[in-house]
């Protein structure tokens, strides 16, 4: 049994079938690696470790470093979906309307907005174009180049707060920055 395979798969919101499709394995093999005493060969272990962005040691349970479970370079589906929903709502657009413009069902769009589905690139582009949203805004939680976009968004949110709360947030940020420099 591959000890952390199920944890990693579920953290990415993937079914066994979807993981099988994405990695070229069969759903039966994924099931057996998660639940039965079957051990994959080293090539399959390397494939799975690379897919999830973790070490083989973590995958098989030799290390317990949970930080490896959520690598910083993995797509943050929940935040991506939240950004899409927030932008749609800021435009006063209902989900069925956006779904119709994009050519998907409202239910599927809901899954994207809730982090349960990764849209194909073509669908993603249709969503962004229908909303007039930049890729930086949609992926700011995942793209290093979008950090200024996120900083700008946070600045706008801070400005909307009452002055005493602005000072509190700014003091908190300043303290965190100073602590990180040490």
Would you mind describing this structure in some detail?
The protein has helices at 5-11, 16-23, 27-35, 42-52, 56-60, 77-90, 95-102, 106-113, 121-131, 135-138, 147-159, 163-181. With 182 residues, it is an all-alpha fold. Helix 2 crosses helix 3 (27-35) and helix 7 crosses helix 8. The model is unreliable at 66-73 (pLDDT under 50).
Could you tell me the strand content as a percent range?
Answer: under 5%
The total of helices stands at 12
What is the straight-line distance between the termini? Answer: 42 Å
Shape summary: flat
Major sheet attributes: none
Radius of gyration: 20 Å
Mean pLDDT: 82
Order of helices and strands: HHHHHHHHHHHH
Outline:
The protein has 182 residues and is mainly α. It has 12 helices and no strands. Helices cover 64% and strands 0% of the residues.
Overview features:
182 residues, mainly alpha, flat
Topology:
Elements: H1 5-11, H2 16-23, H3 27-35, H4 42-52, H5 56-60, H6 77-90, H7 95-102, H8 106-113, H9 121-131, H10 135-138, H11 147-159, H12 163-181
Helix pairs in contact: 2-3, 7-8, 7-9
């Amino acid at each position: 049994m591959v000890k952390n395979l199920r944890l990693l798969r579920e953290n990415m919101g993937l079914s066994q079938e979807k993981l099988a499709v994405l990695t070229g394995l069969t759903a039966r093999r994924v099931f057996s690696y998660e639940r039965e005493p079957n051990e994959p060969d080293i090539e399959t272990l390397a494939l799975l470790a690379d897919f999830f962005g973790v070490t083989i040691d973590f995958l098989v349970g030799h290390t317990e470093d949970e930080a490896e479970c959520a690598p910083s370079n993995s797509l943050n589906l929940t935040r991506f979906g939240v950004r899409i929903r927030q932008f749609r709502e800021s435009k006063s657009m209902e989900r069925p309307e956006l779904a119709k413009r994009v050519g998907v069902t409202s239910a599927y769009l809901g899954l994207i907005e809730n982090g349960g589905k990764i849209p194909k690139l073509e669908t993603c582009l249709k969503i962004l174009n229908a909303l007039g949203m930049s890729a930086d805004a949609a992926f700011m939680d995942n793209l290093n180049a979008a950090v200024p976009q996120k900083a700008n968004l946070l600045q706008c949110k801070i400005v909307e707060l009452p002055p005493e709360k602005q000072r509190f947030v700014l003091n908190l940020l300043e303290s965190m920055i100073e602590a990180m420099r040490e």
